[in-house]
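pasting for the record
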Amino acid sequence: MPKTNYKKLEEKLTYQRKNVWEEMGDKDKKAAMEFNEGYKDFLNNAKVEREAVKQGIAIAQRAGFKNITEVKTLKTGDKIYAINRDQNILFGVIGKDLAKDGFSLLMSHIDNPRLDLKVNPLYEDSGLVYFKTHYYGGIKKYQWPTIPLALHGVVMLANGKKIEITIGEKEEDPIFMITDLLPHLGKDQLKKTLEEGVTAEELNIVIGSIPVADKKIKEKIKLAILEILNKEYGLTEGDFVSSELHAVTASKARDLGFDRSLVAAFGHDDRVCAYSSLLALLDSKNKERTQLCFWVDREEIGSEGNTSAQSIWIENIIAEILEKSGQPVDFKNIYQVLEKSQAISADVTAAYDPDYKEVHDARNAAYIGCGVALEKYTGHRGKYNSSEASPEYVQKLRAIFDAQKIIWQTGGLGKVDFGGGGTIAMYLAKRNLDVVDMGVGVLNMHAPMEIVSKADVYQSYRAYQAFFEKM
């Protein structure tokens, strides 16, 4: 009886993660580095949803995509995009028969945790003027004081004029900041838990300190700031009620590490998957089946709202594509198309952090540098608030990725009873699509600066392209 080669048997029978850098050749390593240069540029110009939509349109238009409102009929190979309220966008390449074949869909979200200005944010106190904020999404509040902040967003003036604002990104711009106690006076603060150390009502942004030269005015500094805003933008205090202004990290996406293998930036969650999915659509060579790339909003607060994954705009835009393709449009037909379709919820996951081993399931976590992560289900504790991909669908994806030599791994969001989180996958599942979560592992998720591996970013792009071409 021949002696068993247990080394080969181990390689054949066991699941082992692979380090992407060890698996890639020089050509792929160079391609990964170049891909991430484009990604960093996208991040620097897309810190809030409206900016991401603008950047996506610019990328798509360079590739020949047209606004669906400018197109009367659609045929195989046509490339279109559709915009919903400037915060939600679809990119699509039309296949041969949408009604018969369904579509392949990548859906990601372009919102991320940050600080939003309150409706009446401006106030003066003790020689300083502040903006009051309301945090958006899941943040650790103690991470936001003492870091440089930039202001992004839009204001609709009383006369109907829209003003776009970006302050704090250029070297010559001022920045803004939330204060914190010095250690010498922080004895009681330091006794509090991290959750209690900085409260939501203490996340007030310093924006100025010079008063107007008139002793008759009660709030001299506040009026001075309003004068600046009025001269620069035509804005009055009442206009804040019709504004959408966000405070975000005033830092550029930067290479991290001596080997430049990582990217530190604001907003990886989930713009890393949004960018990779759009580039995968642009580079896909599949002309047979309709391919769609959705960027949605409001995921960080439960996907509530008319620009979210729960919005019926998704059904509406599918109906428009059917109609312009000359195919029947009715309620039943739309949902039959959805039933024939497959999707990836292109969203990030938590990467294993060796400094916090106690919250991770080391066997089931995603690891930095080990490829794009496939999560069969998300949710929390007893699989609440999740969808779960079927074995049949996961097998199809495995076969595609292995055949295309995509380096991928499994992922999961922490130990069962330590928390967890949901994604937009559950809202696609409600529409009866096959769907699974697949994205990039992130360190510092939801922090003002997050970390991803360039190798994982590149593998996500390759996986998404393979999904479009082979599904």
